[in-house]
Amino acid sequence: MTGQTAPAQPGAQISIDVPAKINPHLGVGDPRADGYHALSTVYQAISLHDTVTAQRRSEGNGEPGIEITISGEGAGTLPTDEANLAYKAAKLIALYAGIEPDVKLHLNKRIPVAGGLAGGSADAAGALIACARLWEVEIGDAELERLAAGLGSDVPFCLKGGTAIGSGRGEKLTPVNAKGTWHWVVATTDTQISTPDCYKEVDRLREDGIGRYSSDVDPLVRAFESGASADELARLLINDMEAAAVSLRPQLASLMHGGLEEGALAAHVSGSGPTVLFLATDVKHAVALARRIRMRGGAKSVHLAHGPVNGPAA
Ligand code: ATP
Question: What is the pLDDT tens value at each position of the chain, 314 positions in all?
Fold first, then answer.
């Protein structure tokens, strides 16, 4: 058993908090032969998190199996069956262990859905850890990471947290020792962008000569390692998907401009969007900026977050 898993007592309920991720650098290359795009990215875990709670289904009145319930963001609209990434994660770990799955998983979601913040991937990471602990599965970190990568490119990072370089399709991780804390205002919008649609738009724009692959993560990594100021960081944020996200949802441009007018150091689309991240100087600035962005309208919800934070925690 790894450090992430410890035996569960009968009747135990295991709760894991799993943070959202942002990509302060997201370089998108050409599609590979397997259909995935090559990525050069820097991930950072931020202080918005979902909580995944697991208990044996058979210890209530239920039959063994996998049952998912959801509260918070996306409750009532997200799938609770096989289509839910947490369900897939539970099934995968049972298959790995050669046991019948027996779990009731509750997802308390605070991470905005389909916002480029990897909420589904965070739940999958949380379900892997919670089920491994509940069922006392002997599994090493490397093997857990391999299962995570099979569930989605962002899931291995969601197991780790902190700051890391992601290469391959994002699943190959190199930890970064970031020295500092950076403050963000996270503004969601009332539209959604599917990640595959956003990749398609990146490819379409490239065919028209718009955008190129930002493969060099070194300047940003050095900035994190040296504890750069938010001002310095603002100049180094890169997202190769930003033009595609704005092309699909033009209203993002006015949200971004609005935040900059209100004093954000930078406006940065989160992953494939449509969430927009505004960088603030410090926590006091972030609080004031969030208030001004809220008052301006145009965002569905406005949250404060800081990063990096540690990965999944019980
Ligand atoms: P990513 O950036 O990892 O592509 P995202 O942050 O943009 O993802 P998610 O919140 O992970 O978006 O949700 C994307 C889609 O995944 C949702 O619209 C939903 O249909 C599906 N999904 C499956 N399981 C979950 C889950 N547990 N939480 C959220 N979405 C889920």
Answer: 444 444 456 678 999 999 999 999 999 999 999 989 999 999 999 999 999 999 999 887 778 899 999 999 999 999 999 999 999 999 999 999 999 999 999 999 999 988 889 999 999 999 999 999 999 999 999 999 999 999 999 999 999 999 999 999 999 999 999 999 999 999 999 988 888 999 999 999 999 999 999 999 999 999 999 999 999 999 999 999 999 999 999 999 999 999 999 999 999 999 999 999 999 999 999 999 999 999 999 999 999 999 999 999 87
Q: Which of 18, 43, 44, 113 to mutate to test the pocket of ligand 1 (most atoms within 8 A of CB)?
A: 113
Ligand 1 pocket member 170 (CB < 6 A): no
Q: Which residues belong to the active site?
A: 21, 154
Between CA 238 and CA 242 the distance in angstroms is: 8
Q: Is the CB of 108 under 6 A from ligand 1?
A: no
Residues 160 and 25 in one domain: yes
6 inside domain: no
Of 155, 175, 195, the last residue of a domain is: 175
Distance CA 12, CA 226 (A): 43
Nearest to 146 by CA among 214, 196, 92: 92
Q: Which domain holds residue 302?
A: 182-307
55 lines ligand 1 (CB under 6 A): no
As a whole number of Å, the end-to-end CA separation of the chain is 16
